[in-house]
Write a structure and sequence with these properties.
about 130 residues, alpha+beta, Immunoglobulin-like, 2 domains, 5-stranded mixed β-sheet, 4-stranded mixed β-sheet, about 35% strand, globular, binds copper (II) ion
Length: about 130
């Protein structure tokens, strides 16, 4: 009896923990509506987060922040747009633009400054 009820309590606790995780995933700036900010990594060649997901065929406003000490940009290859989507930010600055991505899929993102992509400043844009 005692063992059984303890097992049930643990089950409830882990369910609650899972629910809390789901809630924080939705509201924590990483998911869905709120996760439209990309940052350059301070002191390194990377995007944070490296992958972002946006809706297809809907205007989406993206912000690129650059807390690093050198300029960076965030560009997307092969989206089908006539002009390559780009957000460009000098050190300590940010840029915000609204894009509409017409094609669903996964697209490579990169920084076009010399040597940055080769140093690993790449990521992924998921459009769906
Ligand atoms: Cu860069």
């Amino acid at each position: 009896m005692r063992v059984l009820s303890r097992g049930r309590a643990l089950g409830v606790a882990s369910l609650l923990a899972a629910a809390a995780l789901l809630v924080s995933a939705c509201t924590g700036g990483g998911g869905g509506g709120g996760g439209n900010t990309i940052s350059a990594k301070r002191g390194g060649f990377a995007f944070e987060p490296s992958t972002i997901t946006v809706p297809v065929n809907q205007p989406v406003t993206l912000t690129f922040k650059n807390p690093d000490t050198q300029a960076h940009d965030w560009r997307v290859r092969g989206t089908g747009l006539p002009e390559e989507p780009a957000l460009i930010a000098d050190p300590g600055k940010e840029q915000t633009k609204t894009f509409t991505f017409p094609t669903a899929g996964e697209f490579q993102t990169y920084c076009s400054l010399p040597g940055h992509e080769a140093s690993g400043m790449v990521g992924k844009l998921i459009v769906r």
